[in-house]
Each structure stands twice: as C-alpha cells, then as structure tokens.
C-alpha cells in the first residue's frame, strides 16, 4: 500500500507544483525575511529570468535591493548598492526585448538609485529611467506605464518644459482607467494630473482636476490637501511631493494587492 | 597687560542721522556707501585667447575678490580688490578714517596682477616674516605674487626668493601655523591642474566628472622656514589630493590646540584633515563628514551655536535643476560633524559662493552672509545645454571641446544674496531684503571688518564682472561688543589660530584668529564679539597657538583691545 500512496503523492505534487519561477520568488521572499540579501536577490533573479514580464517579481526584486541598501548602509544606501539591479535589468531586457514590464521595472531601478546619487547623476538617472518607461509604453500601452512616465516628467525642473508631456501622459492614463473597473489607486492619477497642471502654471485646470478627482475618490487625502491650500502653501506642498531628493515609493504592490 | 585703542562706542554711534526719518530706512541697518566711500573699481572676467576660449568663458567667471587688513597699521582696516582682465589693475584701498578710501595700489606696487600670462584670482594678507606688517599674496591663474610689506606704504615683490614662483592655477589660500614653529605657513588651493590656461597644450583640462572629479589642482602646503622661504611639503604633510579646490579653512575642531583643515572642492568630495600634531595631517573625511558629491564652494568656521566648538558652513549649489543644499556642519565634539543646514534654514542659498559668519547685530550669535549667482547674462538659460551634454552616453567631460559654449546665456544668475540672522543657534532667518543686502549681482567674496571702528561690523562684497559693494552697518546703538587684535610672541606674530573665549552675561562665546581661506574673501584679523545686553566682561581666555593660555579680567566692553602673548603672565 505504501508504494501507491507515494506514487500518488508524487503525481499530485507534480500536478500542483508551482512553476519554478514562482518557487524561486517565494524562496526569495523567505530569504529576504531572513536578511540573506544576496541569496534573496539571486532567487528573484531566477524568477525574473523565467518570467521577465512579471511586474510583481521585478518590483519585489527592486524592493529587496532597496531594503538591503538601507539596512547595510543607512539612509538612502550607497550608489553602488543599486548597480546590481541596474545591470540585471539591462541584461534581462536585452534578452527579452518584448517584456514591457521588465522595461518598466528597469526604469524604476534607476529611480530607486536617485536619492543615493549626486545632483548631476540624479538627472542622468532620471533621464535614463524616462527612456525605459517610454520603451515600456511603446511595447504595451498601459495605465501603469503612462501614469509612471507622466509622474516622472513632473519631477523635472520647469526649465526643461517636461511637465506638459507629463500632463499628456496622465490624461492618457486617466482615459485608460476610466475605460475599466475602478481601482482605489486610480486617485493618484487625479492628484498627479492636477500637479502637472500646476507645474504648467494652469492653476484653474489643476483645481478642476483635483476637484473632479475628489468627487470620484472622496476619501483621497492628497486631493483634499491640495484643494485646501493656496499660494505658497500649495507650492511647498507640491514641491515637497516632487522633490527629487526624496525617495519615491516605487513599490508596485498596490497593483496586485488591491481588489 | 593690555593696550586699549580707546574707541568708545558712544562717541561714534551716529545712526539716526544716517538713516533718516523714514521708518523703513530706520529698520534697515546696512547702507550701500560704495560710491560715497570713493570705491571706483570694476572687476572684469578674463577673456582667453585660445581654441577653447568660448567654452572657458563660461567657467572662468572668477577672480573678483576682496581681502581686508590694516596694512599700514594705523588702526583702521583697509582692503585689496582684484580684477582679472588682462589690463586690469588690482587696487589697494587705504582707509581714510572717515569711511572713505583711496586707491594706493599703484604707489604701493601691488596693482599689476594681470598680464597676458596671468589672471588674478584672489588675495590673502599674511605676516609671513613676523615683522608685524601684513604682507600680500596675490593668487593667480598662472604664477602667484608675494609682496612683502616694507612698512612705509610700499611693497616689494619677493615671490621668487620666497620659493613661490611656480605655475599654479590658484584660487584660494589660507595662512596658519600648522606645525607651531612660530611662523605662518601657506596652504594654497588650486582649481584647474597646472596647465597653462592661456595656451593649453591639451583640451583635457576640464573636470572629468561633476561629482567625483580628481583631475583638479588640489592643494599645496608650503612650509615657512622663518627666513622668508617656503617649501612644498604637501605630500610629506599628508595633504596630497587633486580635487577642484575652491576654498580652504583652518580651525581647531577638537580643541586640542592644533588647527585642522576643511578643503571644499567643486565637482567632488570635500576633505577634512585632522592635524596630527607632528607636522602631518590625517584625512578623516569619511568619519568626520562623509563622502559627498556636491560642489563645495566656500568654507567658513565659526561657533554658530555657542557650544564652545567650532562649526563649519560650506556653500554648495542649490537651484531648480540641482538641489544639493549647503552644509552646516555642527561639530559633535568627537571629530564628527552633523549637517544641520536644512533644519536651521541655511540650506538653500542658490549657487553659493563666499559666505561669512559674523555677528552683525551684536546679539552674541554669529549670523551669516552668503553670496550667490554664477553668470547673470541674457534671458536664455544655459541649463538645457549643460544637461544635453551630461546625458550623452560615454562623454569625456575632461575634454573642453565637449562642453557647450555659454555665449550670452545665464546660469543660476540674478540670485538674491542672503543675510541670515541667527536666532540663538537654532534657526537662520533671511534678513537680506530688510537690510538692503539682497543684491542680484554675481557675488563672489565677502570681507567683514569694522571699517569705522564703531563696534558695528561692515561688509564689503566682490562681484564678478561687476563693481564691489561696500555696506556700512548703521544699526541703532544699544548692543554691547568687544573686539580683539592679538599679537603673538612665541606664537606667530599675527596669532593666527589663537582662540578667544569670552564670558559675559552668563554666556561663553568662542572666536578665533582666522588666517583666511573663504572663497574670494578675507575678513579683518580682529576677532569681534557681540555681547547683547552684557555690559561687563567676566573673563576673556586666550589660548595662543604656542599653547599658552592667558586669562584677562575686567576688560571694558565697547572697545578694541590689543592683547600681546605672554604679557599677562609677566604682569601677574
């Protein structure tokens, strides 16, 4: 009797076994909890090599690198802490040129490095990130692609005239989100769109966007805050939100944990 | 024993008449008196004549400097201003004791600092031969000039015999006695490496990186042998480095009696060197301040929070396109510093240049005046050009040919200067507009001195491609002050490095004799303390560079006191 049960278990396990990428991913999460940084990163890389377009794997991989940097070197980490992920995504997108989400995460990997870099390198990193976001959008137009690139444009100083490009992207993101089921994180598009209008000196349109957004998302604090402020107070609120020296939360978990 | 130059404050404080009845004017404590004071000087940037001239024009808007000293020892501070144009004259403005000044540069023999092979960049007063007369070092892109003060209103060029006849693209210097042998030594900071900027034999003399460049001129430490000869001891002293130095400052960070060094570098990491008390320094940058990638422009040491430890203010570049922020390094007392610029409000001053701690309102707390602005020209901005360059992959930044010409474009121009009032060591509030000191010229160097000996510190500012501004302090009377001029015996005669601790009204304040080093600006050799309401001094402790500590009691407030090393001991 024992043999058939073992065989049965083997068959069942074969049927129900997670794909190797998912196993690697979960092992990576486990290693991360144990603070085995290098092992965790390795496992995430295995998962991503198997599924380059998996946005979740890419996001968790970057978050792991970020956590490692902060833990080992404090504050924002050292610039070189982020070189592993940059190199990995470079190889990944070269091998999988059609993986839109790999490009998206590659762009975010550059964004992750920005606070640890010098002021000039920040610009170079931000510019490179934009290039990868663009590639992602070209490969697969998506809400997250347009939203991400749109917001990225807003971080640029006015003199570069990129805020208007951001507004266009955010309008496209808005259009995409309005065509599908409502997600709580879609409120961010309204916030950013208003910020984009503000940055292009169109305060009326900014307030209109925030107002419209608040109608759709009445509990959205950032929208409330913006509508409650004026003049210098509003300026400092938006400048603070778009301060390139402050770490941007690039964790994409809302995409898969939000109903 | 003390010698008091009797300059009672009451007799000379005639404020109301100066500022008039207008309440706004009464509220304004500084008056631009440049013209009335007889200052007729305009700095002009050097225009180079070489294949890279158009590119260099954007990066050599330098050389407007001011250096203060009482060169004729008449009890009134004078000042030296530099020009950089090929035919431009440097000027030595002699104080006429009535807040007017006369240019005596030509008669003194110090006016000719520019020629086709040299451009004046800055100046430093130092008494290198301990004769009591401030000598003058003119720093140049090219070869420096050392002028010995003959004590009769004339100077003699002793560059060659002093061993300083060497090609360096110098931009800053400080003179202090690093080895305590009783003579000030010379630390020179060079911006470009020693290529001939007038006829470069290579196009690769620009910074190789915006954040980690190591192909600059570094620093050179010259040891003074006491007989008028300087010897390069940079490597031996452990100071060899190759950053793009813009400012050097000495101060005793750990109160061990030996001055340490802060070297501010453009395009890369500032350096902190601890004086090991054996003729060498140890680079403790990583421990003391960490590794930065900013554009260090100016260093100034001062105890801004009155905790008995010297802190350091460093300007960097802060603009929409480059948000570096300044450093205000609060001294932790263990040879480490914490940057508190952001929380104290001294973080953003635009494209920073010279900055100086000084107590302009005599309330006992060091305020800050900060200059800024790179090139104020046409309406078009140079920022997109520079970023188009840096985002090109694999670009060789050291090659001047890869840099875009600036033409008539502006870069961080028309910026307002900041006069930060220090609110009890907690927060700095900008009062520049209120006091009429928010000029938008391209400021470079600050010189602070009490030019009329009235106990209120005045300010002179040098501006690139522009005229200097002389601000007279006309603050209403009331706050008390005390000022010191120190003369070393065993220590170097100018007493550079001496620390003074004044106790009054239950407060202790720390000052020191500064041998210069701020970018493009040197202030008075006197050490000034605001005392606020304290009308009496409890004690004054002087720690001389020799190690001797002397305590003075019963010194009168509202006076300048000349203190001589060892005289107190003899008396007692």
Q: Quick check: average pLDDT of chain A?
A: 91
Shape of chain A: globular
Low-confidence stretches of chain B: 1-22
Strand proportion of chain A, as a percent range, falls in: under 5%
Average pLDDT for all residues of chain B: 94
Distance between the termini of chain B: 9 Å
Low-confidence stretches of chain A: 1-15
Number of helices of chain B: 9
Q: Could you state the order of secondary-structure elements of chain A as H and E? A: HHHHHHHHHHHHHH
Query: Which percent bin holds the helix content of chain B?
Result: under 10%
- Specify the number of helices of chain A: 14
Name the descriptors.
heterodimer, A: 259 residues, mainly alpha, 14 helices, globular, B: 572 residues, mainly beta, 5-stranded mixed β-sheet, 39 strands
Short description:
Chain A is mainly alpha-helical. Chain A has helices at residues 2-16, 20-33, 37-50, 55-73, 83-95, 100-113, 119-139, 143-154, 163-178, 187-199, 203-216, 221-228, 231-241, 254-257.
